[in-house]
Amino acid sequence: MDSPARRNLMLLIIGVTFAFLYIPISVLIGLSFNEGGMPTAWTGFSFKWYGELFRNADILNAGLNTLIVATCATALATILGTLLAIGVEIRRRRGRALEALIFAPMIIPDIVLAIALLSFFSLLKVPMGLHTIIVAHVVFNLAFVCAVVRARLKSFDWSIVEASSDLGASAFTSYRRIVIPVLAPAIIAGALLAFTLSVDEFIIAFFTAGAGRASTTLPMQIYAMIRFGVTPEINALATLVIGVSVTALALAQRLNKGGLPGQ
Amino acid sequence: MTTPITSLAAFALFTVLTATVSQGQSLTISNWDGYMAPDAIAKFTAETGNAAELVLHATNEEIMGKLIASGGEGYDVVFVSSPFAEILHNLGLAETLDHAKIPNLANLYPEATKLAHDPGNTFSLPYAWGTTGLCYRSDLMAAAPTSWNDLLSPSAEVTGKTTMLATDRWLLGAAFLANGMSVNDTDEAALAKVRDTLIAAKKTLLAYDDTTFYAKLVSGEAVLTQAWDGWCNYGIGENADIKYVIPSEGSDLWVDTMVIMTGSENKDAAYAFVNYILDAGNHRWAAENILYKVPNKAAMEGLSPDLLAQFTNMAIAPADLLKYEQLRDVGDAQRAYSRVVTEVMASR
Amino acid sequence: MRPGVMPPGRSGLNNAMNSRSSTILIAPALAWLTALMVVPCVLILALAFFRRGIYGGIDYTFTLENLALVFDPLYGSILLNSARIAGIVVVIACTVGYAAAYAIATLPRAWQPILLFFAVLPFWSNYLIRTYAWMVLLNREGLITQLARWMGYKGEMPQLLYTEGAVILGLVYSYLPFVILACYAPLSRLNPEIAEASQDLGASGWTTFRRITLPLTLPGIAVGAVFVFVLSIGNFVTPALLGGGQFQMIGNVVYGQFLTANDWPFGAALSMVLIAVMMVLLLLQTMAVERGTRADG
Fold first, then answer.
1. Right CATH number for B25-129+253-311 from 3.20.20.480, 3.40.50.150, 3.30.230.10, 3.40.190.10?
2. How many CB pairs under 8 A join B and C?
C-alpha cells in the first residue's frame, strides 16, 4: 500500500466512524429547532425552545452542578488513577488480589454501588450533597483511568528511566520529567473517559446526592423530565452542551498555541 | 499547575458547605415532573411563609430505594403510589398523620377516606386516582375492544401494534383480570397461569411501554395499548379518534398519595404544604392540567363540563371507582411476582 | 526480546526504591477504593446471607437460600443471553473502535487530541436523549423509513426498532468512544515514521502491523473489550428503550431485585455471583494479555 492510498483509507475510516457517532446528534440538533413539540412531524423552524431553556432555572442549576461534579471527579480520578497505574506496573509481583481490586469498580453493578454508598454514608451520618456524588464518581472513574494508562505502560520503555537514575536523578524527578510527559496522551484519553462517564451518570448520582436542588445533576433532572418523552427543550439543552464544549475547545486551542501535550 | 488545583479545591469546599447548609432549613418535596403546578411552591411560600424546594423523581422504585437506604433523610414530603406508601408505613418511615393539622381533608370525597391501603388516611393522603384500561385508535380498529383478551390475544389486524405497561404490578394486573383473578392473588397456580398468558402475549407485542405509548397511538405505530386513564387523555388531547375503555373484566384502582416522612425536621411546614395542596383551587389544577382525576370533591365539582365531555374517563363517579381493587403490597409474595415478571421478560 | 522494553515488574530503579515507590504511588487510590468501595459493598453484599423481611426490610436470620436461588436455570440463561449480546457488541465495537483509533494515531500529532475530543463529545449530551433520537430514526414511521420512501422504496419496511439488532446497535453506539480511547492509549506510542521505515526496509504493511503494531497495542484492545463487555452486560436502559423491554439482560434483573422487588438479599446474592464470574473472566483475560505481549519477539 502506498502512502496516499493509505492516507485516504485512514481518512475514510475516521469519516465513517464519526458519521455514525453523529447521526443521532444531528437528529436531536434538528429537533431542537422544531416548532412543534412532538418528534413525529416537522412543523417549522424556531428558536423558542432555547428561550424556554434559559427560563428554566432548574435545568441551568442542574447543568452547573453536573459540570462541578464531572470536573472535580475527573481531576481526582485522573491523578489517583495515573499514580495507581504507574505504581502497579513497576511492581515485581502483582497479586491477584490487587488486580481484582482494581477491576472491581468496573464490575460491580452500579445499583449495588449506589445503594451501598448511600447506606454507608447514612450509617456514618455523613451529610450528603454534591461532594458525596464526586466521591462516589471517583471510585469508578479511577479504575477506568488506571486501566487506560496501564494499557500504554505495558509497552513503556523503562530503559530511559534507568539511564536517568544512573545519571543521578531522583525517582521523583524521573517520574515527573520522563514518565508523565510520555504518558500524557494516555492520561488525556483516560481523563476524557472519566469526564464522559461522570457527565452522563444517573444511578449513582441519584442515590449519593443529598435531597435538594443544590445536589441535583443534569442526568437526574432529565431522567425525571423524560416522562412525556423528550421535549425539544431538552434537545436544545443537548445542542447547547455540544456547542459550548466545541467553543471551549476552540478557546483552549487559541490559548495553548505553544503546542499540545504529547508533541 | 498548582493554581487551578487550589482553586478547584476551594470551589469544591464551597459547594460542600452550601449544599449541607441549605438542606436543613427549607421543606424538601419529591414529586414526579409536571405533577404539580409550576408555581405551586412559590404560591405556597407566599401564602404560608415556609421556604420549600421541589426535587424530582422519575419512578416510584427509585425514590423508594433512596428512602429505604437512607431512612428518608433530607426529605419532608414525598409523592408515591399507594403500594409504596404502604411499604413506607410498614417500615416505619411514614408519619402518622394528625388530622387536626389538615383542615382541607374535609374536601375529599368520603370514598377517598376509605381506601383499602389506608382506611382513615392515617399515613397517606390521596392526591390523584384513576383506573387502568385500554387506550386505542377507534379509527384503526374494526370493532372497539371490550376485554383484556383483546389485548392479550389480539386479532390479526392489531397483532404487532400493541403495547403493554412495563411496570411489574400493572403488567401482571392485566393477566390477572383477564383470567378472572384478583390483582393481588398470590396463589402459585394462579401465578403460573398468569405467566403463561403473558408469555403468549409477548409474542404479539410491539413493545412494553410506560410513557410514550400515547405518542405511538398518535403516530399510528400502535393501535391498542394498556394505559392509565390519565395518560390516555394526553393521546385523546392530540387525536380525537383515540378512546379509553375499561374492559369488562375490570380494572385496578390506582392511587397516588402524599406521605410525610417521620424523619422530617419541618413537620409543621410539611402539614401546611399537604393542606395547601388539598385546597380546592390548588388541587383542581391537577385535574385541569394533567388530566388526572383527583379525589377532592370540592375541586372536581369546579371542573368545566367541556373538559369532562372531551375526557370522558374523568367523569367516572368515585363510588364506581371503589368497585375496583387497589394494588396492595403483597409482602413475601413480591418475590414470586418478581420472578414471574423476569420469566416473562426473558422469554423469547 | 524487543529492544528497550523491560520485562514487567522491573523498572530502571533499584529494587528497594522500586517497591517503596510502588507502595507510595498506589496507596492513595487503594485507600480510596477500600474505604469507599470495598467496605460499603461488603456490607451490602453480606445481606445475601439474610432473608428479605416481609415488608422489604431485612430479617436477620442466616440463610443460604438466596445463593441457591441464583443458580436457578432462569438466571443462568439470562446471564448467558446477556453475555452473548455483550459478546457481539464487543466484537463489533472493538473492530470499528480499533480501526478508528489506529486511523487517528496515524494523523499528525496535533490533531489527535482534537479528534478524540470530537469522538466523545456526543456523549456529553444525555444518554436518554441520544437513545430517543435513535428511536426517532428507527421506529416504523421514523426518519429512516421516511428517507427510504423519499428515495422511492414502496414496500413494507422491516421492523427496525424493538429488535435485538436495535439493542446491539444502541450498545455499540454507546460504548464505541470508550474503545477508541482505550485502543488509542497504546497506539499513541506509534510513530508514523516507524511504519514508513519498516516499509522502506521491505516489510509489507500487513507484516508491520501483525508483528509490531498489533502486539504493542493488544493491551489497548483488551482494555476496550473489557469496558464494553462489562458496561454492556450491566446496561438496562438500552434494552428497555430500544428493545421495547423485550430483552431481559442481567442488569435489568439486578436492578429489579433492588428496586422493584425490594429484595436486597437476593439482589446481593445475584450481584455476588455476577461479580465473581466476571472477576474470574477478567483475571483470565489479564493473564492471556500478559502472555500475548511477552511471547512476541
1. 3.40.190.10
2. 85
